[in-house]
């Protein structure tokens, strides 16, 4: 047998209180696309950080082409031909593309030569990019191209990709896959981290599954069903959320002809939006991040106020009301950003429960707060939504992302909303918790609430929504029934490949 | 009122002298802020530099050793800020304010023996032919070396930030310390160097007041120049040439209003005295209406959590 490109043997890394990786071993061969699967908190990130030199293992060894490999810092890893595309892009908004790429190289050439090489590589791999544009103005897909090109310019032997497709349209995903297959044919190995199982089945040669920091199995994705892989990841049988047939009531939320400028510098303006959602209905809104999702949520929550008639709740104009007044009327929202938007990071769960629940749960009287009732409310959220925390006195920041997400969604669901708007309800949440959150949303709709679910997870939207619409550059497509939609049609609704058609691969 | 008593050539020459302390302190702070650190201790580092420079110049008889000592003194005080904000991860605003108060007290203590003494004069550049030219001579060629050093620093910082790799890395650290860390750059080390550079520049600026502009030592003699320098960096949109423009504008109007006071213009002294602040801020606010913005990580504490 030939020597694998990278061999991990018994890697262990413990943090105070948790073992992130316990005795993990596997091999990556030259030119192999190797998937690393696992739920959040399974230890995928820690593992790749060890390979990339950001974290040192407590024990275990790595072999690169048969010789010991122990990078002390990312620079050393890059020098050995290992490159990484980060999940949360490590880009500098105020700098241009060429400057960003120069920062990721050891000995960058002069700017003019670098710009030329960026153009060459971007054309070879079908990733069009202008070296002198400011990164803050780029779309998520274009930003990812910056990261990929930064890696490709160093001729990597192993390319690590951490959740690369979570921000792309289906067409952009196809083109990314073409690029990756071309790299593979040139002998570059790829370590591909994702929890999107269908993508892994389409792309990867081999998969390693991590659960709670341990390697629990390997498989050939093409020969394994997505369900089997999911159950290997979770360790138990998965429950698919059930959607019961239900009758739609009156129009609960009505937006007609709404246009709003974005409050932020790099935001997207909303253009001529029409939305109607009826009682008992779930409207799914898809689209690539940064196409107006945050602004839409702000318009619905009351953070951006409009003309009174532009937003109607049960026929009543609410466009000029603030968030608290809208909550009183039954319009509740749960924004995407958990820390800092949905929850105050340094306040306790009880205080956070108080922050949005005070009106509908009657947690204050004459300006005085009823702490005992607020704590009871927080405990109810923790119990009903299986939030893993020692108790309601813990700070929101101390919860893991998935647990805090369960808390902020549960907090709104338990306030019996008439209209609930959620943005990325299961972002960063593991499969079983995501299923629970989706079930809660469906149950809410079954009880007659109208739900608007903004998400970038198309599988999620197809699973829970009755109608689907896509946001593209601040415009909303006409909603369509999800039952007769294909993924390709959805991709076109999301704005296609954002100019990637010109690429030749 | 006799406006003819104001000599425009002398006015321009003296405005350059008046602007240099602000200029030096502001260009140092600009580099610090570009690296993502907000050091509000400029005033404290300036006054510390002013007394260190003064004392060393008096003891050794050499103004150049004095300026060297001032730069070291300012940098040494900024080391305290480094310790607080980069090692102990304390709040930058509070640490900077504490640094200013500490510097004011420390300089008063150090300066007790130096009140009322004359420092050795700082020699002016004396170029035989050029210095004798009418108008141009006194304005361009009749100053001391530190004044030229200030202008050279502006040009050097501008070029370094725009064209050099070190400048790019510095801006990257100030823009997103997490991303810079992920790429393997030493965020804390780069910031420490920037803070020390800022301290040295502020120290030089302080010594320029006590050795050239005034020249003598009195307690609290920087009288808010450090705060002006801080404001200047913001209103100059973190651009070196605008710092030069703002400093000269401020220095110019300060000198002009003093001349006008002496000439007996019929405007109340209080209005004249506030005019440099008002006009400088007004002009820079108008200039800063373009898209430029603060470094994104400015004032945020970096904690390497990997």
From TrEMBL, chain A:
Write out the annotated subcellular location. Cell membrane
Domain of life, per UniProt, equals Bacteria
Q: Where is the signal peptide?
A: none
Principal location: membrane
Please give, as recorded in its UniProt entry, the membrane topology of this protein. Answer: Peripheral membrane protein
Give the source species: Sedimentitalea nanhaiensis
Query: For this protein, what is any one GO molecular function term?
Result: ATP hydrolysis activity
> Per its UniProt record, what SMART domains does this chain match?
AAA
- Keyword terms, alphabetized: ATP-binding, Cell membrane, Membrane, Nucleotide-binding, Repeat, Sugar transport, Translocase, Transport
Q: Which Gene3D superfamilies does the UniProt entry name for this protein?
A: P-loop containing nucleotide triphosphate hydrolases
One protein family per Pfam: ABC_tran
Instruction: Name the chain's protein.
Output: Nucleoside ABC transporter ATP-binding protein
* GO CC annotations, alphabetized: plasma membrane
UniProtKB/TrEMBL annotation, chain B:
Any one annotated GO CC term? plasma membrane
Keyword Transmembrane tagged: yes
**Annotated InterPro entries:** ABC_transp_permease (IPR001851)
Q: Where, subcellularly, is it found?
A: Cell membrane
In its keyword annotation, does this UniProt entry include Transmembrane helix?
yes
Quote one Gene Ontology molecular function term.
transmembrane transporter activity
The protein's name in its UniProt record = Nucleoside ABC transporter membrane protein
- Bilayer-crossing residues are 6-25, 37-58, 64-84, 96-115, 135-161, 192-211, 217-236, 243-260, 266-287
* Matches recorded under Pfam families: BPD_transp_2 (PF02653)
Q: Which coarse location class applies to the principal site listed for this UniProt protein?
A: membrane
Keywords from the UniProt entry = Cell membrane, Membrane, Transmembrane, Transmembrane helix
Superkingdom per UniProt: Bacteria
* Protein topology in the membrane: Multi-pass membrane protein
């Amino acid at each position: 047998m030939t020597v694998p490109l990278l061999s991990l043997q018994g890697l262990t890394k413990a943090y105070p209180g948790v073992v992130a990786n316990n005795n993990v071993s596997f091999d990556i061969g030259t030119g192999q696309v190797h998937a690393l699967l696992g739920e959040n908190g399974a230890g995928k990130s820690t593992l790749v950080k060890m390979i990339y030199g950001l974290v040192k293992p407590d024990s275990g060894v790595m072999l690169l082409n048969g010789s010991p490999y122990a990078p002390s810092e990312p620079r050393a890893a890059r020098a050995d031909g290992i490159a990484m595309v980060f999940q949360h892009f490590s880009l500098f908004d105020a700098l241009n593309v060429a400057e960003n790429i120069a920062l990721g190289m050891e000995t960058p050439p002069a700017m003019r030569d670098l710009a030329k090489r960026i153009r060459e590589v971007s054309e070879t791999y079908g990733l069009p990019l202008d070296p002198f544009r400011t990164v803050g103005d780029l779309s998520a897909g274009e930003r990812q191209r910056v990261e990929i090109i930064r890696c490709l310019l160093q001729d990597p032997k192993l390319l690590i990709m951490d959740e690369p497709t979570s921000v792309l349209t289906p067409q952009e995903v196809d083109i990314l896959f073409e690029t990756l297959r071309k790299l593979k044919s040139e002998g570059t190995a790829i370590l591909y981290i994702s929890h999107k199982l269908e993508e892994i089945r389409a792309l990867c040669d081999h998969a390693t599954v991590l659960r709670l920091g341990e390697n629990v199995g390997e498989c050939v994705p093409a020969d394994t069903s997505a369900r089997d892989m999911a159950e290997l990841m979770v360790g138990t049988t998965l429950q698919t959320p059930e959607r019961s047939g239900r009758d739609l009531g009156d129009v609960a939320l009505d937006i007609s002809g709404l246009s709003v400028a974005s409050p932020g510098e790099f935001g997207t303006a909303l253009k001529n939006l029409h939305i109607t959602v009826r009682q008992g209905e779930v409207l799914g809104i898809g689209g690539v991040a940064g196409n107006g999702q945050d602004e839409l949520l702000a318009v619905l929550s009351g953070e951006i106020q409009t003309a009174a008639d532009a937003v109607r709740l049960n026929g009543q104009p609410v466009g000029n009301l603030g968030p608290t007044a809208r909550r009183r009327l039954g319009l509740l929202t749960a924004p995407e950003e958990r820390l800092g938007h949905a929850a105050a990071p340094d306040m306790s769960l009880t205080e956070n429960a108080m922050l949005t629940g005070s009106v509908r749960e009657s947690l204050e009287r004459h300006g005085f707060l009823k702490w005992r009732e607020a704590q009871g409310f927080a405990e109810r959220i923790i119990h009903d939504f299986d939030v893993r925390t020692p108790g309601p006195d813990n700070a929101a920041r101390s919860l893991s992302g998935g647990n805090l997400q369960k808390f902020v969604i549960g907090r709104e669901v338990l306030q019996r909303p008439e209209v609930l708007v959620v943005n990325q309800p299961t972002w960063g949440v593991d499969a079983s918790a995501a299923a629970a959150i989706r079930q809660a949303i469906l149950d809410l709709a079954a009880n007659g609430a109208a739900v608007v679910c903004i998400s970038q997870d198309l599988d999620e939207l197809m699973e829970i929504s009755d109608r689907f619409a896509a946001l593209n550059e601040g415009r909303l497509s006409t909603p369509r029934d999800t039952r007769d939609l294909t993924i390709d049609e959805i991709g076109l609704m999301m704005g296609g490949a954002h100019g990637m058609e010109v690429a030749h691969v | 009122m006799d406006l003819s008593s104001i000599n425009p050539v002398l006015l321009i020459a003296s405005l350059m002298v008046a602007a240099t302390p602000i200029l030096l302190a502001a260009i140092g702070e600009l580099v610090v802020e570009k690296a993502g650190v907000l050091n509000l201790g400029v005033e404290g580092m300036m006054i510390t530099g002013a007394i260190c420079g003064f004392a060393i110049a008096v003891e050794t008889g050499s103004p150049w050793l004095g300026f060297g000592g001032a730069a070291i003194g300012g940098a040494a005080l900024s080391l305290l800020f480094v310790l607080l904000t980069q090692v102990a991860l304390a709040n930058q605003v509070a640490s900077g304010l504490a640094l200013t108060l500490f510097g004011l007290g420390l300089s008063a203590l150090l300066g007790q023996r130096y009140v009322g003494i004359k420092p050795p004069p700082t020699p002016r550049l004396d170029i035989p032919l050029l210095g004798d030219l009418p108008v141009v001579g006194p304005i361009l060629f009749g100053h001391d070396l530190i004044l030229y050093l200030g202008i050279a620093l502006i040009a050097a910082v501008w070029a370094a930030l725009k064209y050099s790799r070190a400048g790019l890395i510095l801006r990257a650290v100030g823009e997103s310390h997490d991303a810079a860390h992920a790429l393997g750059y030493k965020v804390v080390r780069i910031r420490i160097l920037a803070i020390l550079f800022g301290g040295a520049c502020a120290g030089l600026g302080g010594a320029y007041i006590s050795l050239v502009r005034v020249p003598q030592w009195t307690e609290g003699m920087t009288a808010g120049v450090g705060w002006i320098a801080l404001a200047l960096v913001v209103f100059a949109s973190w651009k070196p040439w605008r710092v030069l423009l703002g400093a000269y504008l401020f220095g110019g109007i300060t000198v002009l209003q003093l001349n006008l006071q002496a000439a007996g213009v019929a405007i109340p002294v209080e209005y004249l005295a506030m005019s440099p602040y008002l006009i400088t801020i007004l002009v820079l606010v108008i200039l800063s209406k373009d898209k430029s913005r603060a470094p994104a990580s400015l004032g945020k504490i970096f904690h390497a959590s990997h």
